[in-house]
Amino acid sequence: MGKTGKEADLAGPGISTYPEVDKVLPSDYVPILNPKETQIALAEVKKTIEDGLCRELNLIRVESPLIMDRDSGMNDYLDRDGSRTPIDFQCGLGLDKRIDAQVVQAATKWKRFALKQFGLDLYEGLYTDMRAVRKDYFLDHDHSSYVDQWDWEKVIKPEDRNLDYLVMVVKKLWKVIKEAEAKAHEMYPKLKGGKYNDLPEELTFIHAEEMLDRYPNLPRKQRETKILQDLSEAVFIIGIGHMLDDGYPHEMRAADYDDWCTPSIVKNGKQMYGLNGDILVWHPVTKRRHELTSMGIRVTKETLVQQLKETGQLDYLELPYHKMIMNDEIPQSIGGGIGQSRIYARLLKKVHLGECSVTVWPQALKDICEPKNIRVLE
């Protein structure tokens, strides 16, 4: 029997059938930019964001892998319920034993190792123009098997492992995103204002526990939608992964990178947990929640053990990556991933990721999009 209610909403996109997709996609869509203009604009948006990340967070660009050793423990399993697994294959023609490899799902854990590999010092960091494949997504207008993402990571001190530091970094990221929006408006003034709202100047911060207090009977994605409608069209949701008062986490965040178990803030006499979160914005074209980035302060060896114990995954401690954390071989850090096509879709006011990136889409989705004037790239 399938999961229902809040339990069903802990992972996944929130839409799981194409009749549902047909209902949510607008019927009166008219793209502001044509395909040529879109490509010109996203190139400038990309440059603006990469330059801004380097300036605001003191990052350098590095190369990142598309393929990883299966047994390294560095690939990202995204959630902790085993529902999204990497593509496994063997490579190495002529070897007695071919290499057991995986296609990257995200460079989340690799980046922390890379801080050491590239010799980065305190408050220095890196970003990658990361590409990945996620075969287990339901393919709709804002979920693709092809992943284009800015993955970034930065060395911090133990004393920086607090909510104030996290908030400071998030505000810098928001500044960069707003600069990219301004650049798009400078290039194509017809993008500014009009039928669809621009992003708000300020980002609003709220803990997942506070959202649950506001909407105790709603599943996670509906809470996110309501907070964007009721509070602000751009929010950073703090504390994703720790068990909330209703007995469920806000989302099934993996246990071996973000720290979601550390006490972070007390509000209304209630202790709240987590040093991570997501930026979500209201997408005025689709009239839906739209996630832009996920990030957090990373686990220490103590919180790694605590979180793996909570998720029943202590066997991970035998993997090479996890041993590096336990042996203090890689630095303490903060990092995240910013969806490129998701940024482009929001800033350029597109309804579908496929208007910005080229990948495969099911015919059922194309058949829904065509009469709605949504043209996906092929």
Question: Care to give the gist of this entry?
Answer:
The protein is 32% helix and 20% strand.
Characteristics:
alpha+beta, BirA Bifunctional Protein, domain 2, 8-stranded mixed β-sheet, 11 helices, 13 strands, 32% helix, 20% strand
Q: Largest sheet, if any?
A: 8 strands, mixed
- Counting structural domains, the number is 1
CATH architecture: 2-Layer Sandwich
Structural class: alpha+beta
Q: The CATH topology, please?
A: BirA Bifunctional Protein, domain 2
- Specify the CATH class: Alpha Beta
Shape: globular
State mean pLDDT (0 to 100 scale): 94
H/E element string? HHHEEEEHEEHEHHEEEEEHHEHH
Question: What value does the Rg take, in angstroms?
Answer: 20 Å
| Helix content bin | 25-40%
Unreliable spans are none
